[in-house]
Structures are given as structure tokens and as C-alpha cells.
């Protein structure tokens, strides 16, 4: 596998190819599109936040409260969330995200020391069985 960077020497630090896909960026070094396997197009709002991601015929819109991401919706279906996020009191402190519109299921914790972690007495954490990967696979 070969990698290529912007400017030929990586001065901008942007990966432009990984051998399977190519990546395009704007002048502010934000990813605009991916072509090849897992192709997609990204758009940003005037504040630089990710506004939408389009892959094939599916577009996901992102909703913010200030600079906190609070939801993801399919275009045209703003009453049914794909994902929702709850934040802590600090800056950039997401705590949990919910998959779909239900609160009781689809929970994905984004913090390591959540209340249902238990110490096994040897200073090792045992994760609750509901704890899953914090990022969905692409």
C-alpha cells in the first residue's frame, strides 16, 4: 500500500491517497471528498462545522447546539434522528450517543469511567456488557 500527501512531501499534512482512495481538501484543510472505495462528499457550515455527509444517495445532516454536535438526521427526515448526543458540562465533552430515536436502547458511552463500570479489586476495570465501540465502523 502506498500513501501520498499534499505537496508531494506532506507539508500540508493532508493524505491525498492511500492506494485505494483519493482525498480532496479545501483551503482550510477540511476534507471535502473521498473517491474510490467508501466514496463520499462532506460539506461545512460558515462556522467550519460539518454540515452534511453524502455517500451514494444517502445524505446525513448534522445538528449543533453552539459548537456541540447534538444530532444526525437523514435529509428530509428531520423528525427522526439517526443519532443523538448528550454532553457534559465541559467544552468538547460528549458523554453518550444514542442510535435511533429510542433512549432505552442503542446507548454508546463515550467516557471510560461511567457509573456501571466496576473495579475487580486488582485495579482493572471490567466493562459493562452493553459498552460498545465508541465509533461506528465505516
Approximate shape: globular
Low-confidence stretches: 120-138
Percentage of β-strand residues:
35-45%
Please tell me the overall pLDDT.
Answer: 77
As a whole number of angstroms, the C-alpha radius of gyration is 18 Å
List the secondary-structure elements in sequence, H or E. Answer: EEEEEEEEEEEEE
Walk me through the structure.
The chain is globular, with a radius of gyration of 18 Å. The strands form 3 sheets. Strands 3-4-5-6-7-8-9-10-11 form a 9-stranded antiparallel β-sheet, with no helix packed on it. Strands 1-2 form a two-stranded antiparallel ribbon. Residues 120-138 have low confidence and may be disordered. The two termini are 19 Å apart. It has 138 residues and is mainly β. The chain has strands at residues 4-5, 15-17, 21-25, 31-36, 40-44, 50-55, 58-65, 68-74, 81-87, 94-99, 107-109, 118-119, 125-126.
Topology overview:
Blueprint lengths: L3 E2 L9 E3 L3 E5 L5 E6 L3 E5 L5 E6 L2 E8 L2 E7 L6 E7 L6 E6 L7 E3 L8 E2 L5 E2 L12
Antiparallel strand pairs: 1-2, 3-4, 4-5, 5-6, 6-7, 7-8, 8-9, 9-10, 10-11, 12-13
